[in-house]
Amino acid sequence: MRFIQTFQLYDFLDTLVSLLTAFVFGTIIGAERQYRQRSAGLRTNVLVAVGASAFVDLAYHLAEAEGAVRVIAYVVSGIGFLGAGAIMKEGMNVRGLNTAATLWASAAVGCCAGADMVAQAALLTVFVLGGNTLLRPLVKAIDRIPIDEQASEASYDVLVTADAASVAAIRELLLEKLEAANYPVRDIDVVYRSGDTAEIVATLVSQSIEPEELDAVVASLAGQPGVRHATWSVRALE
């Protein structure tokens, strides 16, 4: 009956407070994510917060502060693997970064709760909610500002849709025209689609361009035999 020997009412109540704190604050963070229909919603954020709190609390009771610090370090890195599962790449777009960051923050809330830092856990919860709600209007306002192609740090892609049989020749022509315009290519990919078409995507090295020059390159490519469509796009770097 080792349970009777090891049970301490004070330690039990301390663990209860830690887990309850993590549960409540994880619920608050998760409720906002659930409302916005994110992939990691209410239950996921609660479990991350409670799990982190339980590990830290257990380590603290077994090895005191030194043990808790070691476990927190593992939680910080371990949650990264869980967050990676929430990140999805769709074509040129990456989704789920904010969800992964929220999971990481929920784990931090749980660690604070497990270390009996209830006030700090509450404060961190406020900041997480603020980041996910109060900053949304600012993000939308910034996104509505037109991009200055010459001043912004961005990645530029030239996309050519062509007949599959002409891919090799058009790929070489694309490289020649971009180099002639002094836009060296960092990477070039060919993706074969269903049927007899393929997409050639050239990513440029330059971080500053003249839109008119790329327009001219795209226009000259669009008139080549075997080319069905040609365009270019810009992606702001994180």
UniProtKB/TrEMBL annotation:
Membrane topology reported for the UniProt record: Multi-pass membrane protein
Main location: membrane
GO cellular component: plasma membrane
A Pfam family: MgtC_SapB_C
Domain named MgtC/SapB/SrpB/YhiD N-terminal: residues: 19-139
InterPro entries reported in the protein's UniProt record: MgtC-like_C (IPR048640), MgtC/SapB/SrpB/YhiD_fam (IPR003416), MgtC_SapB_SrpB_YhiD_N (IPR049177)
Alphabetized UniProt keyword annotations: Cell inner membrane, Cell membrane, Membrane, Transmembrane, Transmembrane helix
Family: Belongs to the MgtC/SapB family.
Function description: Virulence factor required for growth in low Mg(2+) medium and for intramacrophage survival. May be involved in regulating membrane potential by activating Na(+)/K(+)-ATPase.
PANTHER family: PROTEIN MGTC
This protein's name: Protein MgtC
Species per Swiss-Prot/TrEMBL record: Bradyrhizobium lablabi
Phylogenetic placement of the source organism: Bacteria, Pseudomonadati, Pseudomonadota, Alphaproteobacteria, Hyphomicrobiales
